[in-house]
Amino acid sequence: MLRGIVFFTDSYAREEVTVFDTTLRDGEQTPGIAFTFEQKLEIARQLSEIGVHAIEAGFPASSKAEKETVAAIKKLGLDSVICGLARSTKGDVDTCLDCNVDMVHVFIPTSDIQRENTINKSRKEVLEITADIIGHIRKHSDLCMFSAMDATRTDWDYLIEVFQTAAGAGATIINVPDTVGVISPSAMKTLITRINKEVRCPIDVHCHNDFGLAVANTIAAVEAGASQVQVTVNGLGERAGNADLAQTVMIMESMYRIKTGIEKTRLVETSRLVSRFSGIGIPPIQPVVGENVFSHESGIHSQGVLRNSATFEPGIMTPEMVGHRRRLTLGKHVGRHAVRQMLTDVRIDPTDPQLDAIIEKVKAIASRGKRVTDADLYEIAETVMGIELNNKALDLQDIAIMTGNHMIPTASVKAMVNGKEHVFSAVGNGPVDAALNAILGISPSRLQLREFNIEAISGGSDAMCHVTIAVEDEHGRIFDASGSGDDIVLSSVEALVNAVNLINRA
Ligand code: MN
Prior knowledge:
Layout: E1 18-21, H1 23-27, H2 37-49, E2 54-58, H3 64-75, E3 81-87, H4 90-98, E4 103-109, H5 112-119, H6 123-140, E5 143-149, H7 156-169, E6 173-178, H8 185-198, E7 203-207, H9 214-223, E8 228-231, H10 245-255, H11 267-278, E9 295-296, H12 299-307, H13 319-322, E10 327-328, H14 336-345, H15 352-366, H16 374-385, E11 394-402, E12 410-417, E13 420-427, H17 431-442, E14 448-456, E15 465-472, E16 478-485, H18 488-505
Parallel strand pairs: 1-2, 1-8, 2-3, 3-4, 4-5, 5-6, 6-7, 7-8, 9-10
Antiparallel strand pairs: 11-12, 12-13, 14-15, 15-16
Helix pairs in contact: 2-11, 4-6, 6-7, 7-8, 8-9, 9-10, 15-16, 17-18
């Protein structure tokens, strides 16, 4: 692909396009999110491990705690460039430099609306401040990113002047933020093409998702010659968020064949880590990382996928590439091939009429809007085929759980494991966690919990609950099972024991 002239002046620019992650800044600006100190360090570590080139660790001048966090992230000694954010004041910049960051990211509003209503400076004054502050930064730091805040709504002639001033003063990269998410991809392409022509400096973009165009605008900027993209994990950020890391990386790598240096096989894992820390779940239909992205239900689709997965998947993006998994799900459209395959996987071999009867029962459950788990399928097969598959590897005898405000939740279990009595106890973050840890600890094979879903069937504190659990074994095989009842802990235990027994029979 032909792109504009790209200047690699930055020491970390090894790839065609570098990835600058702002999860720790924009994520924190997401309403309802406050990462703990430890979580921020872990996110930074993860980002660095997957090859993110630069990490914006925070805004040191905003609070003492933020300053300590940025300094601590820098002290981790990660491979990524560690950047701190600063307003265009010496005070902010010096606080940032105190953290020993590799790069200072300085910003100033340039659109008339933001300039007049926030800093109240003239266009000329903004140019002077820009030159002064970048000069000051470059005396102390090799890397300086300059952002013209609200760039896309700034008068473009003036914007060029601002960027030329920044480049002339020593900015090592200029950032073009679409601060309120209002540009279109074609306008972004025009803007970046012009900046690339008239300003001698590498270009970075920061796009917001108010109209759902953050990723598209980021890609348009890359097409026009931007050499760095700003992204966040799961698209976190204020309002509708920012360009998503996984989507942006996969579009560049798979569709444009642009090297990013990101370890793509860890995208799903990274997304899940940040989802857990942020408390913001990943919608099942979220591109690249969502639960449904490589799931197939309908008959024709799963038949095609079983022969060649590219029939009903992009092909240029596979679950293996992004650390995901392909799943055939049981639903009201389920086809013979998929069911036959799922049963063969666990050495169940129904005759054709038996298979028809099994499918009919699966469809009946699914059309009532219920999820049909693997465990349900095997139970149906047992009934239809009149066989007893249930030689339980794990037969739970007793479970006791203790929890309270002054104790660590603890669970003890007694179970027959392959016919021999075992006891085990474990602690956890809460009673459910402790109970599941105890079951996993006593399980005859090493398993990892992959999914835990709980729904209350009716309101009120005596509500019935339905727990669905998916576990993965050492071979990467995943099975799901469910449990229900009026006790949340025991329903969870039932679901897990069912899943454990499935996996040990497979
Ligand atoms: Mn922003």
